[in-house]
Design brief:
The complex is a heterodimer of chains A (164) and B (168). In chain A, 21% of the residues lie in helices and 30% in strands. Chain A has 164 residues and is α/β, with parallel strands linked by helices. Chain A has a single domain (3-163), classed as Beta Polymerase, domain 2, CATH 3.30.460. A five-stranded mixed sheet of chain A has the order 1-2-5-4-3, with helices on one face. In chain A, strands 6-7 form a two-stranded parallel ribbon. In chain A, strands 8-9 form a two-stranded antiparallel ribbon. By secondary structure, chain B is of the alpha/beta class. Chain B has helices at residues 3-6, 16-25, 38-46, 77-89, 100-105, 136-151; strands at residues 29-31, 58-60, 68-72, 95-99, 127-129. In chain B, strands 3-4-5 form a three-stranded parallel sheet. Chain B is globular. The interface between A and B is medium-sized, with 15 and 15 residues.
């Protein structure tokens, strides 16, 4: 089953909560409402014809000019041998997406990483802490408008660089 | 006839400083501590081919038993604070080698937000070993340079101690 057929079935099941599909993209994707993403993922995992038993990748992208942050779900089904991509778009100033940690355990650290680097709040995540950066870090560095602080605990981040 | 000339030939004479320095430089125990790819070369250096054990250098698992910290790899800001704690746990006299470009100046990653541009921003460094990563021969050279530095130290000279100024 390809992404077009999956989109068809999702439309039939969730109606308006599932947005458009882009089949021209290299990895064809379906846009899903942020509020519906957990139900959609649960259904895609449990439905006998989809069986998306694996969350291959969960990533975040900051589109500063468009004003939204995109959370991208790459799903794979080992039993059906099919691959699809879901995308959720949330506003940059209040990025909040329901957590899919309860659907796939693999989402736990992926969501923590996206929270760490992009500041997306995954509601319902059991342990939403920074994953890579220190806990007292200020800001989310993969935001396009991130400004590097002058120092961290007295360690200056400035050095006359040979590259500049 | 002087005392020296009357001694049997198996008696060696030396200066106290030179003897102390010789004993210390002959047991440069470094802390087993690797941060990135340089740590792989660090492991090679302690292996049988480079074999720095013949110069008395050997890895120790605890900072409290170490004389030398080889900072091998990219130092992130998060690790910089921990590196400082580890360095302060080492008993004095203690030394540090910045191994590779990253530990010396941030290297390839010096423009990254999370990278500390050189370990000398956190702890004092005695020897810088350039390279990306340096070969075991280069690190061996670095350890030999450090031993030269150790041999040049004077410990028995009374050092001038500045009187402590009272602080309010």
């Amino acid at each position: 089953m390809d992404t077009a057929a999956i989109h068809e079935r999702l439309k039939g099941r969730f109606g308006e909560r599932v947005g458009d599909v882009d089949l021209a993209a290299k990895d064809p994707y379906v846009v899903v409402d942020a509020a519906a993403i957990r139900d959609v993922c649960q259904w895609l995992r449990d439905d006998p014809e989809q069986r998306f038993d694996s969350l291959s990748c969960l990533s975040g992208v900051d589109y500063k000019d468009a004003g939204h942050i995109e959370v991208v779900y790459h799903l794979y089904s080992y039993s059906q041998r099919q691959l699809t991509v879901l995308k959720v778009r949330v506003p940059r100033d209040t990025p909040s997406v329901p957590s899919v940690e309860a659907v796939w355990k693999a989402a736990d650290w992926h969501e923590r990483e996206i929270y760490d680097l992009l500041g997306v709040d995954f509601t319902g995540h059991p342990d939403l802490r920074r994953l890579l950066l220190p806990e007292d870090w200020v800001g989310h560095p993969l935001r396009k408008d991130y400004v590097e602080p002058e120092e961290y605990h007295g360690i200056s981040t400035r050095r006359e660089s040979l590259l500049r | 006839m002087s005392l020296i000339n009357s001694s049997p030939e198996w008696v060696l004479t030396t200066k106290a400083d030179a003897f102390l320095n010789w004993t210390r430089k002959s047991s440069v125990w470094w802390m087993l501590f690797g941060l990135a790819c340089c740590a792989i070369e660090l492991m090679q250096t302690q292996g049988p081919r480079a074999d720095v054990d013949r110069f008395g250098a050997a890895p120790r698992a605890s900072p409290r038993q170490s004389d030398l910290m080889v900072v091998a790899g990219t130092l992130t800001m998060k690790m910089a604070l921990r590196t400082k704690v580890l360095y302060e746990q080492m008993p004095e006299p203690r030394y540090a080698i910045a191994m590779g470009a990253c530990a010396s100046c941030g290297g390839l990653f010096q423009l990254a937000y999370s990278v500390c541009d050189g370990v000398d921003k956190v702890i004092p460094v005695d020897v810088y070993v350039p390279g990306c990563p340096p070969r075991p021969e280069a690190l061996t050279e670095g350890i030999l340079k450090l031993q030269e530095k150790m041999m040049a130290e004077n410990w028995l000279v009374r050092r001038k101690v500045e009187p402590a100024t009272a602080t309010a």
